[in-house]
Amino acid sequence: MSGGADILAVDGGNSKVDVALVSRDGAVMGAARGGGTPFLPGSDERSIAALLDTIARACREAGIDPARRPLARVAALCVCGADLPVDDRRIARALKPHSLATDLLLHNDTFAVLRAGTDRSWGVGVVCGAGMNCSAVGPTGRVVRYAALGEISGDGGGGGWLGQQAVSAAVRGRDGRGPHTLLERLVPAHFGLRGVPAVLQGIQTGRIDDFPLELAPVVFAAAGQGDAVAQGIVDRQADELVAMVVSALRRLRLTRRDVDVVLGGGVFAGGDGCFTGRIVDGIHAVAPAARVARLAVPPIVGAALLACDRLPAAAGAAGRVRDCLTAQRLKPGDPSRQEA
Questions:
Q1: At 21, phi and psi to the nearest 5?
Q2: Contact 82/10 with Cβ under 8 angstroms?
Q3: Hey, what domains does the chain have and what are their CATH numbers?
Q4: pLDDT tens digit sequence for 25-36
Q5: Which among 123, 140, 162, 134 has a CA at the least distance from the CA of 258?
Q6: In this predicted model, what pLDDT tens digit does every residue of 171-193 receive, in sequence order?
Q7: d(Cα 200, Cα 295) in Å, to the nearest integer?
Q8: Predicted TM-score (pTM) of this structure
Q9: CB 59 within 8 A of CB 66
Q10: 3-state class (DSSP) for residue 28
């Protein structure tokens, strides 16, 4: 097996982790996708186990001994769970014994979305997946972050929140505390059940587990069929994201700049044009020149580019990373994985 790589790039989320080993000229030597690495307090051991397993598979593809330390000159890990400075320190301590790289960069996953969606060193990155979060970097390097701990820190949103709202609306519609909604039918149908009481029973007894995230598409489907209650849930989610972005832009004094605002995460992938359009309109109402776009490449591209920035990488490396580190490249068993 060969020596190490120049770059170890990691994009870790609740449901999956992507790993890539990249050379200084931007060539992807090996890549792999594994199970989730939430890195929440109490989950570090499980998250690191999933991370190391995925790194080992990327190493084997790259012809690198997984036991070699350090594996790379620079490692850029962009993971959910790195929300507060105390989280950054906790995760860094947990990673230190594994000596992944000579130089280790640790960021929240929003920074991968931001860097993947722009060629600038500044802008706003938004993630709306299981939860939601936003980070922003100003032209001077000043950073704005949010706690993103859920309702307790004022962050009501994400796929989990959408699913919870769907069940709540279905229950309230059925018992008369709220307006009737298609969700009364669509939520039970999603689980193959006959009614809302059966859904509550399944949740209470544990037969329906981790349900909220999988119901997010049901909310969008109901909204697409003209259901006012579901549309209201979708609109509240969009407005919460706008509030985060607008607050960041104001704090960094970017409301008059042509700032890039990059939208990433599974909810955007599964959402519709009206949802994204409401977000764009809300941002433009405050920052008319802002360039708002959904992320078109895997977020791990951003992690790799952050490491390229740190090296610095060879000329043309960023373009090669963007061309090679595609969603297809990360799919296990795909023949195209051998092309880069």
A1: -105, 125
A2: no
A3: 5-117+297-338 (3.30.420.40), 122-295 (3.30.420.40)
A4: 999 999 999 999
A5: 123
A6: 999 999 999 999 999 999 999 99
A7: 36
A8: 0.92
A9: yes
A10: strand
